[in-house]
TrEMBL record:
<dbReference type="InterPro" id="IPR017585">
    <property type="entry name" value="SAF_FlgA"/>
</dbReference>
<dbReference type="InterPro" id="IPR013974">
    <property type="entry name" value="SAF"/>
</dbReference>
<keyword id="KW-0732">Signal</keyword>
<dbReference type="Pfam" id="PF13144">
    <property type="entry name" value="ChapFlgA"/>
</dbReference>
<keyword id="KW-0574">Periplasm</keyword>
<protein>
    <recommendedName>
        <fullName>Flagella basal body P-ring formation protein FlgA</fullName>
    </recommendedName>
</protein>
<dbReference type="InterPro" id="IPR041231">
    <property type="entry name" value="FlgA_N"/>
</dbReference>
<keyword id="KW-1005">Bacterial flagellum biogenesis</keyword>
<dbReference type="GO" id="GO:0042597">
    <property type="term" value="C:periplasmic space"/>
</dbReference>
<keyword id="KW-0966">Cell projection</keyword>
<comment type="function">
    <text>Involved in the assembly process of the P-ring formation. It may associate with FlgF on the rod constituting a structure essential for the P-ring assembly or may act as a modulator protein for the P-ring assembly.</text>
</comment>
<feature type="signal peptide">
    <location>
        <begin position="1"/>
        <end position="21"/>
    </location>
</feature>
<keyword id="KW-0282">Flagellum</keyword>
<dbReference type="GO" id="GO:0044780">
    <property type="term" value="P:bacterial-type flagellum assembly"/>
</dbReference>
<comment type="similarity">
    <text>Belongs to the FlgA family.</text>
</comment>
<dbReference type="Pfam" id="PF17656">
    <property type="entry name" value="ChapFlgA_N"/>
</dbReference>
<feature type="domain" description="SAF">
    <location>
        <begin position="106"/>
        <end position="168"/>
    </location>
</feature>
Length: 231
């Protein structure tokens, strides 16, 4: 065969033969699982850290003629540990379960001081901190919009993450409201107009300014728009 014809034949064969896919490694499968989890949990203002665990060293991963498919069998859940299914969808494919450790860091509201049951929450009561929300099984609150006009259903210690379960109903009294200030003594009740200097639900303590005398007294919320002066 003439050298020119042989070179042309080799060139034609070289373009006709498909490139062989590189064998799949454990690192390939683990990287596929990690990238999938990051995509599922990524959100503005969040930082996602994922680390997969080593697979069984006896495992031999066959090549896959198709693109690998990934899924979360339990759905997207905010838990520290997940299992990702990595599957070869080819006719003679396979499925592997890859355990991963998940960390999702977000800004959440934390109590700046001890908060009392019944208190309304204002900006000075809380501050934002970055926390791993996968380690917060009772949930978390991200913004003041979520607590607007809400009161606490239980005490919250300083430094504790504010949770949805700690939020009660809407406040019966809000700062600046005109309220009925009731003073009780020896079975006699005296009523006056007052202005609430704080916010809260039933049972919350707050300061109230007497509309007649201008005197500021401590009071407790009894009903919507009604507070009782403390002795």
């Amino acid at each position: 065969m003439a050298p020119v014809r042989r070179c042309l034949l080799l060139a034609l064969l070289g373009t006709a033969l498909p490139a062989l896919a590189a064998p799949l490694s454990e690192a390939d499968v683990r990287a596929q699982a990690e990238q999938f989890v990051v995509r599922q949990y990524a959100a503005p203002g969040s930082r996602v850290d994922v680390k997969s665990e080593a697979l069984d060293p006896r495992l031999r991963i066959a090549d896959c003629a198709a693109s690998l498919a990934t899924s979360l069998p339990g759905g997207v859940r905010m838990t520290p540990r997940l299992s990702v299914l990595v599957r070869c969808p080819a006719a003679d494919g396979w499925t592997l379960r890859v355990p991963v450790e998940l960390h999702v860091f977000r800004q959440v509201l934390v109590a700046s001081r001890p908060l009392v049951r019944g208190d309304g929450i204002v900006a000075a009561d809380v501050h934002a901190e970055q926390r791993d929300v996968t380690r917060l099984p009772y949930g978390y609150v991200e913004s003041m919009d979520q607590v607007a006009e809400r009161s606490l259903s239980r005490p919250v210690a300083a430094g504790s993450v504010l949770t949805p379960s700690a939020l009660g109903g809407r406040q019966m009294v809000r700062a600046g409201d005109h309220v009925q200030l009731v003073a009780e003594m020896d079975g006699i009740a005296v009523r006056a107009e007052g202005i609430a200097l704080g916010s809260g639900d039933a049972g919350a303590r707050m300061r109230v300014r007497n509309g007649n005398s201008g005197r500021v007294v401590d009071a407790v919320v009894r009903a919507p728009g009604v507070v009782v002066a403390l002795p």
